[in-house]
Design brief:
The two termini are 26 Å apart. The chain is globular. The protein contains 13 helices and no strands. The protein has one domain. It has 293 residues and is mainly α.
Length: 293
């Protein structure tokens, strides 16, 4: 029924960023066993962007203007080249998929901090959530997983910072309408990742395994075309706190899938960090759901 379509679309979008994005950390972990990380991420987003762009143009959607291409391209570099690319490299370096998802769960903290640049006020409860989240980050870095890969720890936090800044900035930019924003961002972000792969000297020394191809296909269709488009839709439809609420759903999904399907081990420090970070995210986000738009 027409009256139900918006609510059903919202539900579908939330399910996409909750469940599909939670599973992409395991897909990345499987993929980087066959693919060089930057090459895989670049192919993922360039292919997804090309498919989406071609489908939209076939449907008659106008191409972005040059000004929109530049803005969408800068966001693509922040969100995809820096954000997702850094996570992919971190998992290639040995960071467990569940721990990577837990580190990315700190994004709502950075949403608030970057929101100060656009005049958003931060309450005492939100500051308490930020401080609690910072404690969770410290605990996470005390765990054996990130201590074994200091560069991986830096990369996942860098990814969280760039993703949060790009997301907040996107709400104040004149971007293309609808999914065309996703297509433009993925095309530019994927091209930058492929350039980074070339400059870093990555090589594909052997043909990827069937599992590697399946992981790439899953990331292209579900992780990029569906889930990333759903996220950009939510950014322009609901409050930032609601759009970033995936941060406290993805880690349990990623940790469970990593333990069951990849045999990952999560130490006591990581479990404690998960509890602290998720509590901080709840402190920050739940009150904002009740605020006026």
């Amino acid at each position: 029924m027409p009256a139900r379509r918006p609510s059903l679309l919202l539900i579908a979008a939330f399910l996409a960023i909750y469940l599909i994005w939670g599973s992409t950390y395991l897909a990345i972990r499987i993929g980087v066993e066959s693919w060089p990380p930057l090459l895989m991420a670049g192919i993922r987003f360039l292919l997804a962007g090309a498919l989406l762009f071609g489908w939209l143009r076939w449907r008659g959607v106008p191409a972005p203007t040059w000004a929109q291409w530049k803005l969408a391209g800068m966001l693509g570099v922040l969100l995809l080249s820096c954000g997702n690319g850094a996570v992919t490299v971190a998992e290639h370096l040995g960071v467990a998929s569940g721990v990577a998802a837990l580190a990315i769960a700190t994004e709502p903290l950075f949403f608030l901090l970057f929101g100060l640049f656009w005049g958003l006020r931060t309450t005492r409860l939100e500051w308490a959530g930020i401080l609690l989240g910072l404690l969770g980050i410290v605990l996470l870095n005390l765990g054996s997983n990130l201590q074994a890969s200091p560069l991986g720890a830096v990369l996942v936090l860098f990814a969280s910072l760039t993703w949060a800044f790009g997301s907040m900035w996107s709400k104040h930019l004149p971007l293309p309408a609808g999914p065309m924003t996703s297509a433009a961002e993925m095309l530019v972000g994927g091209a930058v990742l492929l350039l980074a792969s070339l400059l870093s000297g990555e090589r594909l020394y052997s043909w990827p395994t069937p599992a590697g191809w399946a992981a790439l296909a899953y990331l292209v269709v579900f992780g990029s075309i569906i889930a990333f488009s759903a996220y950009l839709y939510l950014l322009n439809t609901v409050r930032p706190a609601a759009a970033s609420s995936y941060a406290y759903v993805n880690p349990p999904v990623a940790v469970l899938l990593g333990i069951v399907f990849a045999g990952e081990q999560i130490g006591r420090e990581e479990w404690l960090a998960m509890a602290v970070i998720l509590a901080a995210v709840l402190l920050i986000t739940l009150p904002q759901w009740r605020r006026p738009s």
